[in-house]
């Protein structure tokens, strides 16, 4: 077996021990005589899986009791629509646009009401996060939406917009479970699972109860896009993504039992990111364009002096077992996504390769 270090932005690496556990249970889960992929979602054996996955998420993220959890299909992109369809009770909402996904979320929300783009970092190609304290929020906004970690541009919020009485909604697709999170600061958190949590095919929403109970009433929402319907049915209004939920449970147990929780997870993630940024900061060959205070610890962007060298770098890195380093097509250059499952060894191997490449081409 020759497993590579996979720097993909998502779907992305899963912890090896999680894959091995899934492999060991693939043909027969427990003593059920069947695979998780084959069993009825209404069976008691599957029920125990979904209940434990939610319980593990609650333990790991320390989710307060007045928040509900939904496992929802359609990825994070469906959440771009579900949030305004359910929560835009005043017909208005504030959006901070700090990259492509928050831009898409704002565009989707425009279909359901008035969107105020109260801050944007487009003027500098999304290489920084606006000062959240300097933003003029709309008094009549139903919520304030951010994308907490910008997967494509490699930035993240280190401070959150907090306005009395206006819930914060955050897309945490590319940073969830990377560090401890104070869930009580948010009205709603959502994330696609395919980066830090599970195989692709599902999003998770963590919603404050009062927002569920006081959802928008002026729209006829399809049942599948109604948080309350889905969550009241314990995410089994219809057939859920059974496999993704099972895998999410395994990943959560890995964080709890092997890593030692989110404080330890953050230490590991900081160490990996620092190794890479420290190297980039002293390199005269590779550059990282992001404002230092706003650098993501999950997605690290960098570029060599030319497009040709970028292409050569990606090709030679892949030959050395370091794959999916090509930057997003809208940014160019390279991007190393170093999510939870990327071991320190992988980042060390990347930095060693970058040094060697710089020496040969610099
Ligand atoms: N938000 C963020 C921050 C993302 O990185 C992505 C996907 N890379 C999305 C939303 C869209 O997710 P999905 O493909 O699950 O709809």
UniProtKB/TrEMBL annotation:
Xref: InterPro entries: Aminotrans_V_dom, Pser_aminoTfrase, PyrdxlP-dep_Trfase, PyrdxlP-dep_Trfase_major, PyrdxlP-dep_Trfase_small
Reactions catalysed: O-phospho-L-serine + 2-oxoglutarate = 3-phosphooxypyruvate + L-glutamate; 4-(phosphooxy)-L-threonine + 2-oxoglutarate = (R)-3-hydroxy-2-oxo-4-phosphooxybutanoate + L-glutamate
Binding site for L-glutamate: 42
Protein name: Phosphoserine aminotransferase
Record text on cofactor binding: Binds 1 pyridoxal phosphate per subunit.
Cellular localization per UniProt: Cytoplasm
An annotated Gene Ontology molecular function: O-phospho-L-serine:2-oxoglutarate aminotransferase activity
């Amino acid at each position: 077996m020759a497993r590579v270090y996979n720097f993909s932005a998502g779907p992305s690496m899963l912890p090896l021990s999680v894959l091995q556990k899934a492999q060991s249970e693939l043909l027969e889960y427990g003593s059920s005589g069947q695979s998780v992929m084959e069993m009825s979602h209404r069976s008691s054996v599957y029920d125990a899986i979904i209940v434990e996955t939610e319980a593990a998420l609650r333990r790991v993220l320390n989710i307060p009791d007045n928040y509900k959890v939904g496992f929802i299909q359609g990825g994070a992109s469906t959440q771009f629509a579900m949030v305004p369809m359910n929560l835009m009770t005043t017909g208005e909402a504030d959006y901070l646009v700090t990259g492509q996904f928050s831009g898409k979320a704002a565009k989707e929300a425009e279909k359901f009401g008035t969107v105020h783009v109260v801050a944007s970092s487009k003027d500098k190609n999304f290489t920084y996060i606006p000062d959240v304290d300097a933003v003029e929020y709309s008094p009549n906004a139903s919520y304030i939406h951010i994308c907490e970690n910008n997967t494509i541009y490699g930035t993240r919020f280190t401070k959150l917009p907090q306005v009395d009485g206006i819930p914060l909604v955050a897309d945490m697709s590319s940073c969830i479970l990377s560090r401890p999170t104070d869930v009580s600061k948010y009205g709603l958190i959502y994330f696609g699972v395919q980066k830090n949590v599970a195989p692709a095919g599902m999003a998770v929403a963590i919603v404050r109860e009062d927002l569920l109970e006081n959802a928008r009433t002026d729209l006829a929402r399809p049942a599948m896009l109604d948080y309350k319907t889905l969550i009241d049915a314990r995410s089994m209004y219809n057939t859920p993504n059974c496999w993704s939920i099972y895998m999410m449970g395994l990943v959560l147990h890995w964080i709890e039992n092997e890593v030692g929780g989110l404080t330890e997870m953050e230490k590991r993630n900081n160490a990996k990111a620092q190794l890479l940024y420290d190297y980039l900061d002293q390199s005269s060959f590779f550059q990282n364009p992001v404002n230092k205070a706003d650098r993501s610890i999950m997605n690290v962007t960098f570029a060599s002096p030319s497009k040709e060298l970028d292409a050569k770098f990606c090709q030679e890195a892949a030959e050395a077992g370091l794959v999916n380093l090509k930057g997003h097509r809208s940014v160019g250059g390279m991007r190393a996504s170093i999510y939870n499952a990327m071991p320190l060894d992988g980042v060390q191997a990347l930095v060693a390769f970058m040094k060697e490449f710089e020496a040969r081409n610099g």
